[in-house]
Fold each of these.
Amino acid sequence: MANENQFRLKTKFIATRNVKEYRETIPVLVNEDDVVLEIGCEWGTTTQILAKHCKEVIGTDISPECIERARGYSSDIRFEVLDGFDVRSALDFGKQFTKIYIDISGMSGYRSLLDVIALLMMYATILRPEAIIVKSGSLKQFAYNCVAWRIEDTQAKDKDQNKEC
């Protein structure tokens, strides 16, 4: 059952289709005061880019092997093993994340769209970042086709049509 609190989140969701778009958001959306969590960092390539634009970044991945490799490439950046679906464990980092970047393989298909939305809502509800940037082609396509309903829009349209008569 829905309640009004779930609709009061201020987190912005930015959907990107591919790695290029995902990384293009960094200089536009991330600033020197941001504390960023990256979920699905793999070897830390995007985490390195994020680190150049923010105050602090933590790169995470479910694979211990990927985290070890990322640490080998960038010993000055914090990397941790984290299952991206274990949102409560992200609280254990003890940080107030202002931005969250999510690049989890398998999140781009339409069959996973509900999982993506559920994951975004969990992070928004629990960590309350300013923005969550996610690499998901299906979410981007879905968002592109969405229009938030507002009765005022239809009333304005009706008013304009009445003027034409």
Amino acid sequence: MAKLEWEESWSVGNDTLDKEHMSLIIIINRVLAGEGPMEMVLRDLADYANNHFNREEGLMQSANYEELDAHKHEHHMFVEWVNEITTTLSRAPEARHLLGDTIHEYLQKWLKEHILNIDMAYKGKL
């Protein structure tokens, strides 16, 4: 798979959120390249989710965004996934190499389905 590069068409119209989405692309590329321990990648994903989701949801709440509850649910599912992968890795460290592809595929799917579709619904509203 090819390294991801940010495209302006992916912008949600908010510089802060765009920069945070760019940071997720960096994490995805690290997974693809096999850079660093998987535990560090998962920790970075958890930090990303905590910081980005809180900021995004706060902006949505301030803007009285109608789809906030559904969006929060999507975020919750992502956090649960990160927690489950982290737990799996802690219980079976030998699965590290097998999890790399799973993590990369999930993050690619998240980028395409969540950021490039679901997040675009609030473009211009926050």
Amino acid sequence: KTKEWEVEEYLKTEEDQRLFLKAAFEEAGDDAAYIAQTIGAVARARGMTAIAKETGLARKALYRSFSDKGNPSLNTLLKVGQALGFRLTFQATQI
């Protein structure tokens, strides 16, 4: 019997989560869905109920936003990022 692999089971520490997010942003290019799924995995690893409570967003809506078919708003991304202890920044790609 096989079990579906769940990445959040391996994101036990904040350092694991930080490195996972960093790698995702470096590898994703313009794949917003990939970034959303990565943020969702970190949120699930931390506990979606706690994230929902801290952000004031519904837990069910968070699961939907960060699913493989989700498309979270910028507001949702910013709130969840803050709840996770991260903030969105932009860096020049060319100088």
